[in-house]
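Sanity check

After download, print the first record. It should look like this:
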Amino acid sequence: MHRKAVKIDEESIKLISLFNNLTGAVVKDCIVVPGKMGVRDKVIFLVLKEDVGKAIGRNGENVKVLKEKLQKTIDIIGFSEDIKEFIQNILNTSKVRNVEIRENISGKKTIIITVNPEDKGKAIGKNGIMIKKTKLLVLRHFDVDNCIINTKN
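Expected structure tokens:
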């Protein structure tokens, strides 16, 4: 699966610098997701998968410091070049059974992620937040046009 070149804006560069200074973890990407109606903005940091523990810190200390300093919700996700592993890292509490890539006649690629039916609620998330986050990250980092979560057997 081909990867896309990711453009990082000025705000994200500043956040990456702050994150690196605090944690020492290698950041692959940083995305600020605006909150809606009383919900805090969220900052998603993609780090090398081997740096996730260092990024989070002992007892979540780094996440707590960042959350307080930035007044934003913080997500830390381990990046992987392997799309299935990457998706599993995003949907960490849901078991990903299968990742299928389908290409239609016009060349558009769709990723179909199958999770266990009992993980449906966690995979979708409140108001579809997990689906939106998965789609945002997969479309940003991999050469695909759509991303669907399937919870049927």
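If your output differs, re-run the checksum step. Summary of this record's structure: Strands lie at 27-33, 42-48, 73-79, 96-103, 109-115, 146-150.
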